[in-house]
Amino acid sequence: MKVLVIGGGAREHALCRSLSLDPDVTALYCAPGNAGIAEVAELRPVDALDGAAVARLATELDAGLVVVGPEAPLVAGVADAVRAAGIPCFGPSGEAARLEGSKAFAKDVMAGAGVPTARSYVCTTAEEIDAALDAFGAPYVVKDDGLAAGKGVVVTDDLALARAHALACDRVVIEEFLDGPEVSLFAVTDGTTVVPLQPAQDFKRALDGDEGPNTGGMGAYSPLPWADPKLVDEVLETVLQPTVDELRRRGTPFSGLLYAGLAITSRGVRVIEFNARFGDPETQVVLARLKTPLAGLLLASANGTLDVLPPLNWLDDAAVTVVIASHNYPDTPRTGDRIDGLADVASQDAPHAYVLHAGTKNDGDAVVSAGGRVLSVTATGKNLTKARERAYAALGRIRLDGAQHRTDIARKAADDADSAGN
After folding, report:
1. Concatenated DSSP letters for 267-331?
2. In the prediction, which pLDDT does 184 show?
3. What's the distance, CA 52 to chain centroid?
4. Strand, coil or helix: 184
5. Which residues share a beta bridge with 143?
6. C-beta separation of 310 from 215 below 8 A
7. Residue of 18, 119, 211, 339 with fewest CB within 10 Å of its CB?
8. Per-residue DSSP letter, 212
């Protein structure tokens, strides 16, 4: 089967890496891709937001499956254009992708499905904003209603900062603060059947100790040794399946990757947000543990045959990924800096540790930074402690002027698991 992946970040590199290892994949393409993806897939130029252009490229390549990675093309309806061309596509329709494209829409779907989530107000005026902030009090949780590349959420005790962020949005969702640890759970669905993957936890803040501004994610790990073993079944029953059923009832069936961002609160599981695609950086660790060939799983979603797919197989190993970001991320990141040491990781740390590219490009014989989050260093090990050791050892071989990364990804979970003898 020929597979075309749309996108060019670390998530798409992780997808391409897994697909390249699948014996059923006879040719692998990525558009537009990046410097790292070029090592496992043939890159093709395309405007990822142009559905007609993506469909033409898929037709020219005789693709048997198109995987749309990022949220913006999904919300723009790129998957619809591909399906209209008669090509199986992994990714929801533009209408269903509103589950991520509009937080107000997601709240409405959750209300209809009876899904537990934070109480919230949708605000469009300064008066509504002030009333909502006063109603909930600190910590203030303020979310831009639309897509914001993972940086549209402000959680703060500073009323002035919360109000300023809210006023800068055309429409904003203000909600109650949810206590407890956060969990990311992906599920593959064909609009009826829902197949959950393994949970992960990511780290949104830029600095150690969960300090600093929100980012698109600075690292992640899986599995979660501290989580209730029944968590996945509970979320499937109370969140994922009801949401898919509600969207189908509304005439907008959701086929693709449903991502639930969850808070494990003192009152039970609550949904923080939904995404309509694989999350970054959680994808890096979840796919590192998936033994089942990826192409067949994604194709079953696209073709509506998940109900006959055998149960998924998973490695017992843990996985940790650490993001290397460029100077001044997440504000105005510097780009164009040379990256060295990638070959050292490939020669000394593989197969247990490897580098996934996000914001990179080729500049002559060199690879240079081309975005805020530049690389994800991913490693596996018999437990989180070993996976962390390998990830940070590999990261230490990489040289990027002005680079920043967190040093505490999965540290507490690893230490707690070691103390418990796990």
Report:
1. TEEEEEEEESS--TTHHHHHHHHB-S-HHHHHHHHHHT-GGGSPPP-B-SSEEEEEEEE-TTTTT
2. 97
3. 25
4. strand
5. 153, 173
6. no
7. 211
8. E
Residue 141 to residues 89, 129, 176, 369: CA-CA distances in angstroms?
35, 12, 7, 32
- Other beta carbons within 10 Å of 366: 12
Q: What residues contact 251, with CB distance under 8 A and at least 6 apart?
A: none
* Gap between the Cα atoms of 207 and 215, Å rounded: 10
Which is it for the CA torsion 256, 276, 290, 26, positive or negative? positive
Q: Strands of 182-189's sheet, edge to edge?
A: 194-196, 182-189, 256-265, 268-275
Structure tokens at 406: 């967190």
Query: pTM to 2 decimals?
Result: 0.92
Alpha-carbon torsion, ordered 190, 197, 235, 358, to 10 deg: -90
d(CA 362, CA 416): 41
Closest CA to 151 of 160, 159, 138, 142: 142
Q: Does residue 151 surpass a pLDDT of 60? A: no
Contact, 176 vs 118, CB < 8 A? yes
**Considering only CA atoms, which of 180, 144, 174 is closest in space to residue 159?**
174
Any idea which residue has 């540790």 for tokens?
353
CA 101 to chain centre: 14
Query: Could you read off the pLDDT of 32-78 as tens digits, one per residue?
Result: 999 999 999 999 999 999 999 999 999 999 999 999 999 999 999 99
Mean pLDDT, residues 256-273: 94
